[in-house]
């Protein structure tokens, strides 16, 4: 599956995307004032705030941010703690991250069957770890660890693993998770609105007295996570960059996950001390956005969380970094493709530097018409150039990155990136671009505020970074006052030879300090038990919310644009933004040249505009377009402000109908594709999840390998590719629209477009790829230089049957689809055999495709035999847990009751149903039938579908570390080359 967008689209490298810290801001000129609510809880509000924000500070210092939003009966919740890796003691790094893991283990009430007995054993474990970390003798350490393992099994008798996750699943929570970074640890949930009291009860108890149970298996999970980072080139880039930027500050002197040596010598006492130091109410915030009554909610929060007692929080005094006088170079090595990353250091998020960074970042890279967009991406001078500003509390960074083209050095890339900075220093960018950037920021905010998640994350950022909400609200107005001359002057002062350049080379890294697996005796999992706390919480009966299902005829308006083109629309009553889609039932299975043709289109101009002018014209009116292509369908998307709809559609139509060939652009595109293909063979995720996954499903001939050969690519001409675009627009398609315009007016306007003036052709014949059904088990291995091993297991079953969907939904939730599932509990919680593992019965997206048993395991290579044995046992025998089974059923129903499909998702839900041959919202079937199933039903499903199945196992890892004899016991082993799985 490929996605093409305008050349300026933010296609930052994965490491940069993962580390993005989003700050969202209001754009109104408004005032802030304290108000007394009717119940005497004082709060701060902001006049004219579209979020209706209320900010409370309770007597114990707990901060509460609220944004009531009744669009759906759900609430997005974040509990933020101002404690991250920068607060870790230098001698025991990784504490903040490890404590995050432990906050899922419960308390003396959650997850415990008999805490009085359990705590005796837990104290023994705490003492043993202190002895372990103070002992150097390997034999003595091994003996102490055996004692830890033994006592841990005794303590586990009184433990209910994952009870917190089961509770949240039972009340219909989604996205239960947490994250730790440099100055924060944040715990998130998306809950049904009627479950607010239950959730508050659970969370108040969770933070009251977390218990460090199941420590040694969870520590092994963190070991796994650490070993994963050792395989990550992006981690090496990030750590090297921050080490160069921050010589004194803990941003650069230590890492979030911690040093390997510190993880090998853990201290439970230190983790407990960290909790008592930082997890106090005056250092925490609860951020809520969704459907709730704020007056009633603040009373409940105060009642539940008043048990937390405030205390003085240690002041973190950031060290003053010395100026960077000259460029600092660092070189890292790894198996993935080359890349150059440049970072500049600035003052923190509360300084005026943050405002300038926001504007300069967009002037350089705004996805359409920035300097990097036009000069590097549009001209194909490099591969995947990007820019990102990252505000942090004490310091901020501005990062630029790009990958080299074939024959280009990393020094060449560095020079090209710095040239764009020089243009800013000289003020060599148009005045209108600054106005367009402000407009772009406003549009981004409108999109962010549409979701409860976006609102809550905005509050988290403000709290963690110490930003007053009034200052946040005033940001756009401040930015609007900054001139081009101001920006140039700032850039001349702050962007000099004061940067760090990280050269990421393709090559073998020095040996990383891999953490070896310790001997762990599998724990007894009390999955059939519940604590008294859980029983009490679940006995609370909240007011019932009735589900709402989509009626495609009622919720989607249908008009004919022409005899061949239908318009399906959903009204946007929230803001003035629109999204328009041309949807074709044509994809790369119909033409191997199509994705290249659409990619080529994004580098072309028209008789009215050259390529740069076209991008600038789009950006000036706040519009953007992108193209998504798949095997059997594609869509062209145009979005922006409705007031500029006509201009935006005219620009897009001109490009689709009148694109002008450019031989030089095509030659650069060919070279770029060839380089990207070579880089793809170095990407672990690309190899495993796309190339290997496709090979397991189809064999050597598949939709994934159905591309032009390198030779064919070199020979293709502009005429051929533009012919593909011209032919595409002659085929029947449909139009999807989400926006404020009336559909009949929209249909009239679209009817006048050039490509709609003639009769359209029916969808052409596509190449059909047969899914293979192996007659014997096969094991395919791809050799890759990595510490861990990752594998996919696929077994083909029958075709899509809508009547089976309710049972399959329940089975997946129970068996292997989440953190409370039996697969996760057995392999991660009880046996510590994998950091990431799941196993589901996967349904297809097309009615003509097959269902699959799909299993993924990511683990250390030396654990692979045990992990395979563990998953094999679960595929043979389904463990029974009445508690977990009821939790799964309740969770499914609660999620459906409060899920509201809105906006564009209504249109795409219809598209998904159409491909599966159904004419209704399948959630109705799941809701109506899930309560009728017994455990015997999913046990029978497991027996019929999982036992004694032939399948294909795909293993990615270093052959020197893999136990090939073990793999042979699972089937005939064949080592595949990258050429075989990629097809070129």
Automatic annotation (TrEMBL):
Keyword hit for Transmembrane: yes
A Pfam family: Peptidase_M16
Swiss-Prot/TrEMBL keywords: Hydrolase, Membrane, Metal-binding, Metalloprotease, Protease, Transmembrane, Transmembrane helix, Zinc
Cofactor: Zn(2+)
Residue spans crossing the bilayer: 12-30
Residue stretches making up the Peptidase M16 C-terminal domain: 271-439, 762-878
InterPro entries: Metalloenz_LuxS/M16, Pept_M16_N, Pept_M16_Zn_BS, Peptidase_M16, Peptidase_M16_C
Peptidase M16 N-terminal domain boundaries: 71-117, 599-692
Classification via PROSITE patterns: INSULINASE, PROKAR_LIPOPROTEIN
Family, similarity comment: Belongs to the peptidase M16 family.
Name the record gives this protein: Insulinase family protein
């Amino acid at each position: 599956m490929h996605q093409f967008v305008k050349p300026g689209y933010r296609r930052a490298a994965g490491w940069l995307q993962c580390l993005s810290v989003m700050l969202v801001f209001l754009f109104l000129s408004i005032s802030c004032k304290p108000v007394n609510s009717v119940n005497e809880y004082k709060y701060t509000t902001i006049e004219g705030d579209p979020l209706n924000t209320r900010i409370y500070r309770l007597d114990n210092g707990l901060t509460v941010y609220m944004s009531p939003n009744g669009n759906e009966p759900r609430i997005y919740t974040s509990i933020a703690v101002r404690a991250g890796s920068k607060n870790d003691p230098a001698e025991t790094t990784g504490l903040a991250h490890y404590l995050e893991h432990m906050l899922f283990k419960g308390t003396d009430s959650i997850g415990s069957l008999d805490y009085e007995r359990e705590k005796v054993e837990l104290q023994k474990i705490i003492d043993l770890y202190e002895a372990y970390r103070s002992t150097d003798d390997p034999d003595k350490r091994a003996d102490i660890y055996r004692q830890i393992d033994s006592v841990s099994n005794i303590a586990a008798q009184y433990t209910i693993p994952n009870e917190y996750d089961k509770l949240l699943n039972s009340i219909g929570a989604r996205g239960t998770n947490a994250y730790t970074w440099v100055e924060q640890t944040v715990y998130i949930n998306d809950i049904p609105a009627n479950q607010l009291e239950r959730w508050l009860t659970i969370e108040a108890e969770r933070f009251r007295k977390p218990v460090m149970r199941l420590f040694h298996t969870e520590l092994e999970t963190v070991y796994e996570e650490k070993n994963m980072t050792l395989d990550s080139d992006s981690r090496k880039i990030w750590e090297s960059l921050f080490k160069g930027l921050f010589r004194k500050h803990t941003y650069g002197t230590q890492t979030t996950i911690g040093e390997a040596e510190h993880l090998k010598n853990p201290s439970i006492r230190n983790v407990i001390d960290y909790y008592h130091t930082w997890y106090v109410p005056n250092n925490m915030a609860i951020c809520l956005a969704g459907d709730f009554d704020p007056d009633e909610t603040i009373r409940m929060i105060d009642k539940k969380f008043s048990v937390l007692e405030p205390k003085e929080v240690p002041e973190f005094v950031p060290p003053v970094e010395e100026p960077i006088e000259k460029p600092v170079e660092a070189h890292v090595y790894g198996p993935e493709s080359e890349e150059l990353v440049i970072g500049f250091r600035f003052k923190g998020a509360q300084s005026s530097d943050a405002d300038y960074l926001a504007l300069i970042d967009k002037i350089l890279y705004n996805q359409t018409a920035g300097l990097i967009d036009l000069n590097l991406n549009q001209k194909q001078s490099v591969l995947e150039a990007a820019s990102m500003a990252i505000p942090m509390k004490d310091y901020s960074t501005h990062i630029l990155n790009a990958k080299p083209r074939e024959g280009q050095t990393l020094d060449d890339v560095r020079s090209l990136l710095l040239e764009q900075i020089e243009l800013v220093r000289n003020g060599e960018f148009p005045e209108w671009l600054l106005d367009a950037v402000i407009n772009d920021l406003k549009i981004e905010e409108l999109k962010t505020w549409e979701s409860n998640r976006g609102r809550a994350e905005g509050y988290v950022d403000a709290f963690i970074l110490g930003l007053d909400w009034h200052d946040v609200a005033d940001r756009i107005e401040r930015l609007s006052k900054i001139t081009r001359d101001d920006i140039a002057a700032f850039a001349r002062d702050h962007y000099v030879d004061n940067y760090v350049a990280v050269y990421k080379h393709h090559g073998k890294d020095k040996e990383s300090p891999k953490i070896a697996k310790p001997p762990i005796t599998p724990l007894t999992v009390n999955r059939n038990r519940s604590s008294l706390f859980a029983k009490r919480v679940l006995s609370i009966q909240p007011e019932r919310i009735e589900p709402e299902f989509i009626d495609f005829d009622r919720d989607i308006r249908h008009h004919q644009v022409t005899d061949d083109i239908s318009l399906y629309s959903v009204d946007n009553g929230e803001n003035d933004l629109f999204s328009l889609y041309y949807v074709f039932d044509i994809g790369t299975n119909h033409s191997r040249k199509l994705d290249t043709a659409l990619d080529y289109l994004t580098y072309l101009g028209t008789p009215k505009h050259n390529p740069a002018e076209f991008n600038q014209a789009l950006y000036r009116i706040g519009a953007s377009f992108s193209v998504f292509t798949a095997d059997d369908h594609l869509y062209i998307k145009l979005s922006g402000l409705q007031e500029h709809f006509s201009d935006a559609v005219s620009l897009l139509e001109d490009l689709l109908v009148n694109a002008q060939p450019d031989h030089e652009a095509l030659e650069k595109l060919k070279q770029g594709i060839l380089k990207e293909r070579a880089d793809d063979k170095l990407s672990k995720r690309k190899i495993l999840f796309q190339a290997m996954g496709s090979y397991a499903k189809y064999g050597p001939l598949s939709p994934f390998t159905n591309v032009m050969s390198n030779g064919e690519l070199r020979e293709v001409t502009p005429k051929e590719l533009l012919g593909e675009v011209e032919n595409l627009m002659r085929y029947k398609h449909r139009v999807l629209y989400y926006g404020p315009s009336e559909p009949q007016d929209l249909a009239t306007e679209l009817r006048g477009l050039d490509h709609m003036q003639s009769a359209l052709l029916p969808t052409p014949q596509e190449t059909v790829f047969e899914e293979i059904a192996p007659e014997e088990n096969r094991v395919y291995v791809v050799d890759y230089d990595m510490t861990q091993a990752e594998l996919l297991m696929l077994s083909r079953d029958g075709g899509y049957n809508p009547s089976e969907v309710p049972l399959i939904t329940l089975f997946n939730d129970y068996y292997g689809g989440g953190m409370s599932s039996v697969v996760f509990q057995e392999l991660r919680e009880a046996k510590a055999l994998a950091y990431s593992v799941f196993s589901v019965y996967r349904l297809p997206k097309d009615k003509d495709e097959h269902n699959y048993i799909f299993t993924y395991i990511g683990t250390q290579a030396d654990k692979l035999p045990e992990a395979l044995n563990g998953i094999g046992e679960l595929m043979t025998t389904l463990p029974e847990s009445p508690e977990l089974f009821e939790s799964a059923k309740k969770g499914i129903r609660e999620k459906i009751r409060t899920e509201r499909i809105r906006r564009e998702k209504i249109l795409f839900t219809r598209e998904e149903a159409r491909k599966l041959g159904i004419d209704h919202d399948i959630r109705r079937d799941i809701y109506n039938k899930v309560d009728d199933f017994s455990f015997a039903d999913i046990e029978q499903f497991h027996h019929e579908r999982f036992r004694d199945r032939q399948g294909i196992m795909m293993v990615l890892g270093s052959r020197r570390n893999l136990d090939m004899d073990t793999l042979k016991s699972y089937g005939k082993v064949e080592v595949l080359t990258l050429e075989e799985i990629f097809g070129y």
